[in-house]
């Protein structure tokens, strides 16, 4: 008789509650215990994996992934729309044990996480683009923003210039300008100041909420 593997104990880290909820919903039927969710800060619970969702985050060499798992044996796995090779290299160099594209299905993500728990380094970049019909959730989805348009708008709302966004998260300034242009059209604005005002009123202000499932915070003895 095949033994069912124990659920992976997971913490989901991102600064946007709607994004975290979307990831948790994607994995809800996949034999996962979501023990902790919250903004980008040190994980407190006893978990196997910290899944770091990069939505709205400045990516690259300035991120110390080990900050999430101090005094813990948990592995950090990056979960991102941005799968440029340089981003993957920087994440692995910074201590990540996996880098997963958001185009993956729930079962594919869980399979990758199990491999990480077994000691593998897992990189599954998939495609670097997705439509608004993709899995999960993000601010602005209800008005038709794609994941990448929403991420660029989130970074604009944090005060980054187009060049700063290109330098830290995207392959080219022209790509950023394209996402800005299409995002502005969808939300009905024509200037950066208007875009920031719209973003702050429509879910693009980072959250600070942390949630912990008290029933799962410590691993049950075998």
What's this entry about, in short?
This protein is α/β, with parallel strands linked by helices. The protein is built from 7 helices and 7 strands. Helix content is 33%, strand content 15%.
What is the percentage of strand-forming residues? 15-25%
- SSE order in H/E notation? EHEEEHEHEHHHHE
| Spatial strand arrangement across the major sheet | 6-5-4-3-1-2-7
User: Overall mean pLDDT score?
Assistant: 82
Helical proportion, percent range: 25-40%
How far apart are the first and last residues' alpha carbons, in Å?
20 Å
Silhouette: globular
Q: Enumerate the spans where pLDDT stays under 50 for 5 or more consecutive residues.
A: none
Structural class: alpha/beta
What does it look like?
- The chain is α/β, with parallel strands linked by helices and 222 residues long.
- Helices cover 33% and strands 15% of the residues.
- It is built from 7 helices and 7 strands.
- The protein has helices at 17-26, 85-93, 106-117, 147-157, 162-168, 173-187, 192-200; strands at residues 8-13, 32-38, 49-53, 75-80, 98-101, 122-124, 210-212.
- Helix 4 crosses helix 7 (192-200).
- The protein is globular.
Tell me the layout of helices and strands.
Layout: E1 8-13, H1 17-26, E2 32-38, E3 49-53, E4 75-80, H2 85-93, E5 98-101, H3 106-117, E6 122-124, H4 147-157, H5 162-168, H6 173-187, H7 192-200, E7 210-212
Parallel strand pairs: 1-2, 1-3, 3-4, 4-5, 5-6
Antiparallel strand pairs: 2-7
Helix pairs in contact: 4-6, 4-7, 5-6
């Amino acid at each position: 008789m095949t033994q069912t593997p124990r659920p992976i104990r997971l913490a989901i880290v991102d600064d946007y509650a709607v994004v975290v909820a979307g990831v948790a919903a994607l994995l809800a039927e996949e034999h996962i215990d979501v023990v902790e969710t919250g903004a980008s800060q040190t994980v407190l619970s006893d978990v196997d994996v910290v899944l770091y969702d990069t939505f709205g985050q400045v990516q690259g060499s300035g991120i110390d992934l080990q900050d999430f798992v101090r005094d813990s044996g948990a592995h950090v796995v990056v979960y991102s729309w941005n799968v440029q090779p340089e981003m993957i290299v920087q994440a692995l160099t910074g201590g990540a044990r996996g880098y997963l594209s958001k185009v993956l299905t729930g079962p594919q993500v869980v399979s990758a996480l199990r491999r990480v728990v077994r000691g593998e380094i897992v990189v599954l970049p998939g495609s670097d683009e997705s439509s608004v019909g993709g899995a999960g959730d993000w601010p602005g989805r209800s008005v038709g923003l794609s994941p990448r348009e929403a991420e660029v708008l989130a970074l604009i709302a944090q005060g980054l210039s187009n060049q700063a966004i290109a330098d830290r998260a995207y392959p080219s300034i022209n790509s950023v300008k394209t996402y800005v242009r299409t995002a502005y059209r969808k939300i009905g604005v024509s200037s950066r100041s208007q875009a920031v005002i719209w973003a702050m009123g429509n879910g693009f202000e980072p959250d600070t909420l942390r949630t912990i499932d008290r029933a799962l915070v410590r691993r049950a003895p075998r």
